[in-house]
Amino acid sequence: MMKKTLIASALVGLFASTAVTANDDTEELRKVIAQQQEVLKSLEQRLDQTEQRLEATADQVESSSSTTASNKTTIGGYGELHYNNYKDTDAKVDFHRFVLFFGHEFTNKIRFFSEFELEHSIAGEGQDGEVELEQAYVEYDYSDTITTKTGLFLVPVGIINETHEPPTFYGVERNGVEKYIIPATWWEAGVAANFKLAPGIAVDTAITSGLNVGNDYKIRGGRQKVSNASAENLAYTSRIKYTAIPGLELAATVQFQTDLAQSSVGVDKAAATLIEAHAIYQVDNFTVRALYATWNIYGKEAEALGRDEQTGWYVEPSYMFNEQLGAFARYAEYNNEAGFSSSSAVESSSVGINYYLHENVVLKADYEELGGSKDSQGFNLGFGYQF
């Protein structure tokens, strides 16, 4: 439109000039016409250049908007391959986990996080594997000191339940205390809030779906994984964490559930309390981790089975020799079979190494001796990554 208007104005000028010189001779008239034609040509070139600059600017703005939107969406993941060889059992190799993360930042206060997992390489009827949605929640910063979660998320308990990517811990397999007693990896659906009370002091609270242990009262088997889960009885979790001193983390979690059996027919109602406490202390290249967890189940059936108290603990010192090589030792005791005693508790002693090809790519090897209610020994080899 702009181009047509300018050309029309130029034509008016041409006719005006022609009228003024109508009485001049023919040669002068030709010169005037030629000059006006040059003016028109120059105007057209300038208009073309302006249009090109406008189009380039529009393309740049569109490209910038697209780049900004893509920068707000993140993709990541982790995976681990295991080889297990123990006495009196067949050696096995398993691509234990393949996980993808997807996240998106809607605003600087509202974010989405998710975790999609394939376990044991292949899932389907008659297969060993499972496809799981381990996280899918929206996080909202209510203020500088209060952040909320809504959706499906990991329960705030223990050391590895929320942070369990292979390069972040020692040992090919996750330790038995956090696997069977806590039980990691453990996620539920509900709402949660994080309160930053002071620098280095935070409290997490959550109201979520709970476990459904059935009549065997085994904690790990009670994870419903938010799959059409019974929600007759919710779970209430609270954790306090202290990180004000560099290199030190102290945390304690309490969870209460009014009925671990979710009011199932034929199973006695059994309220339960989980208490967990842990410490992580790092000085230069030396780190020590210690954790204690116990379930108290208030029900006659659980007591008759000897599962009214299920407890575990471990201590794990480790040392990084350089950026690539680290070694650890771990002693653990745990029981969820028939009461916590020297005759029925599992005793585990492990030593091993982590070799980092990259800070996010690790090769692992460990040797474990099992005593108490289990009598075995063997070794594990593993490979893991995160990005």
From TrEMBL:
Origin: domain of life: Bacteria
Keywords (A to Z) from UniProt: Coiled coil, Signal
Keyword Coiled coil: yes
SUPFAM superfamilies in UniProt: Porins
Extent of the signal sequence: 1-22
Coiled coil: 26-60
Family annotation (Pfam families): Porin_O_P
Name of this chain's protein: Carbohydrate porin
Native organism: Colwellia hornerae
